[in-house]
């Protein structure tokens, strides 16, 4: 298999030392949580631990980590080929289940896994699973309970928390993703005009997200979320995608998009008004930009997540704007449906201490009664002022 | 909210009669399963029942159906705005949880839902949940168990099975998706050449998938799976996505892609060889095309899923090719991570009876030791020969 393995990995993998460092970090966390065997089903966690990459997360799969030995890849037989081609481990240990376990009412892949763990004597001790994760189901949990001597314990977020502080190699990927999102926003600003159909604008966004740039020396990967770009009163709803109708003069549209380089993301939102912006948009711009400045001042190592949120919310309050939702989340390596890391949140009450190398999407979006407004930044925490990953003019863009 | 509601729905919704027919069908199935209250978290099921559309499935949400009354939308407070704009129900009944429930270690959205069900007196009777679905977690199950008088029962696939036979309005959307996938394959065949970077080809694929076509009168939506297009020996792995390196002469690449029109899919795969194809590719083409013909002959109302699979596998066997995985699945309305419906499968042992209006991706892909080969069709079951949704030349495409 050696020649196959070479075909992909040289562009996708990190160094062995990087993976070994991650594994050591994870094992310390497992030890602290009293977990002997960790079954992690989140594709972002699987990739972070092993380098595994592929759109196979629609069937059950996992990476298994114990105190000693290399991580084990578990998944569908046909996807073992993808594991061989993408994981960093030499001669990887793979547990592959036959296709009859796929979407079968009679048997579950976790039945198979419980049996293989038992074969290896790994069924003893505390086994951790991600109880609140898209990729590990309630039925999978029941199958493991039935097939193991004792129920697994909840290890939701255990790996995710280890991913918080980024290595230099990870930051390098995020900076490359930032170049892509800069290009995407420049393209939008250049091409948008009244009458342009929204699906055509999305085609432009993908084009700018993906194409190889000889000056940059790379092209783009798919982001974990498709472009969100609701217009007018629909922009009060944060998660609408697009349709094929023409964009209209007199409406604002926010663009919540991310550049993605080898699964690492740089999300960034901007808002464009076609025509003369209403006072509400100008007021929102003023409040958000001022709040953004205060939030960025609070975004430094030693402060906490809530410090950023409170600094931002205080400015909004002064401007008479109420925001009922968190104002950011950690980012980095991700697969659909979310480019967030699902650990801490920028919101009052979250006292997670900020450390150098943590990365956040400072999500200062406003979804008001009849409009939406987003000007956001993705940042790297440092001892001093944070690094803003991308350089996109931080203002309401007006195009007439 | 009336003006907001109008903004989206006219392009996305089906008729009220269509939704009411679906609800009646679902209620018969609930009654047969002895389920009083169904909590369905799958976004495809939520959309099928209510029309709800949005990229909000990365947080917990559901549609609740009981024997009487309109369906209830449950989700995050900020996404209620999206529900108001997309569901078919007039004056919709919405249960929205505050943002502090989002990705919190201390509280779970299903705690909130259990309390609201109890408020309404809906906590009694048998409550069905989707135990083996990406969008309902093991922790959500535990939260409902803790908050309700008795544990919910498993209703995985209950809604999905109702979606199997498509209405004329649904088939119309799938035929539109077929026009898009035809355009996508035509674009690939036109643009691909040795030296072209794969990410640039993906940009072309998205362009053809999305842009408004004045002749067709519509543009495209995002498919539930990103383009899969591994080359050379990497094509032995079915679920690799892309990188930014040049494509090479002397390699075959399969393109597993789908057109998508308002969340309805038409998947279709083709394989392209750059240069002179090896005998292995020519052999695979011969076997797959012959097997496809036999399979299509078996694909008619009254036969079963396994009839199609056995017809196809018999031809492969004759050609000395072994395929260890299912050869198709039902398709239609879908959200990531999968454009399949996750009910029946085209494989030996699946005796699901084929009915007119069922739609399948006849997935005749081969992932062999050092190559991959995919020529597939999406079909509509009829009393006679099936309708092939798309018209793309059914052969190995060779480009020198």
Automatic annotation (TrEMBL), chains A, B:
InterPro entries: Creatin/AminoP/Spt16_N, Creatinase/aminopeptidase-like, Creatinase_N, Ectoine_EutD, Pept_M24, Peptidase_M24B
CDD domains found in the cross-reference section: APP_MetAP (cd01066)
Highest taxon in the source lineage: Bacteria
Domain Creatinase N-terminal: 22-164
Domain Peptidase M24: from-to ranges: 173-382
Pfam families assigned: Creatinase_N, Peptidase_M24
Identification of the protein by name: Putative Xaa-Pro dipeptidase protein
Annotated source species: Oceaniovalibus guishaninsula JLT2003
Lineage: Bacteria, Pseudomonadati, Pseudomonadota, Alphaproteobacteria, Rhodobacterales
């Amino acid at each position: 298999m050696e020649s196959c393995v070479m075909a992909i990995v040289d562009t996708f993998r990190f160094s062995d030392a990087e993976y070994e460092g991650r594994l050591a970090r994870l094992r310390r966390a497992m030890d602290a949580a009293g977990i002997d065997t960790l079954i992690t089903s989140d594709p972002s966690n699987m990739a972070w631990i092993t380098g595994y990459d592929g759109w196979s997360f629609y069937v059950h799969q996992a990476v298994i980590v114990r105190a000693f030995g290399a991580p084990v890849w578990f998944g569908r037989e046909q996807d073992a080929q993808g594991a061989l081609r993408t994981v960093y481990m030499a001669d990887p240990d793979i547990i592959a289940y036959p296709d009859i376990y796929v979407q079968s009412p009679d048997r579950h892949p976790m039945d198979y896994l419980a049996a293989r763990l038992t074969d290896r004597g790994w069924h003893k001790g505390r086994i951790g699973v991600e109880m609140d994760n898209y990729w590990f189901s309630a039925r999978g949990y029941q199958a493991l309970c039935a097939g193991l001597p004792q129920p697994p314990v909840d290890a939701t977020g255990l790996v995710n928390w280890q991913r918080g502080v980024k290595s230099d190699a990870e930051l390098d990927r995020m900076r490359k993703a930032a170049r892509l999102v800069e290009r995407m926003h420049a393209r939008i600003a250049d091409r948008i005009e009244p009458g342009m159909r929204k699906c055509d604008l999305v085609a432009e966004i993908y084009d700018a997200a993906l194409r190889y740039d000889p000056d940059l020396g790379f092209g783009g990967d798919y982001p974990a979320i498709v472009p969100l770009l609701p217009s007018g009163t629909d922009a009060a709803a944060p998660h609408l995608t697009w349709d094929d109708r023409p964009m209209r003069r007199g409406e604002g549209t926010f663009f919540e998009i991310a550049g993605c380089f080898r699964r690492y993301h740089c999300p960034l939102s901007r808002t464009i008004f076609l025509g003369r912006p209403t006072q509400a948009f100008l007021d929102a711009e003023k409040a958000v930009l001022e709040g953004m400045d205060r939030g960025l001042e609070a975004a430094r190592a030693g402060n906490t997540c809530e410090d950023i949120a409170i600094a931002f919310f205080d400015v909004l309050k002064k401007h008479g704007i109420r925001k009922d939702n968190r104002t950011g989340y950690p980012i980095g390596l991700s697969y659909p449906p979310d480019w967030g890391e699902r650990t801490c949140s920028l919101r009052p009450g979250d006292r997670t201490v900020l450390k150098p190398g943590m990365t956040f999407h400072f999500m200062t979006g406003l979804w008001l009664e009849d409009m939406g407004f987003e000007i956001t930044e993705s940042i790297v925490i440092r001892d001093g002022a944070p690094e803003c990953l991308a350089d996109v003019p931080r203002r309401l863009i007006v195009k007439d």
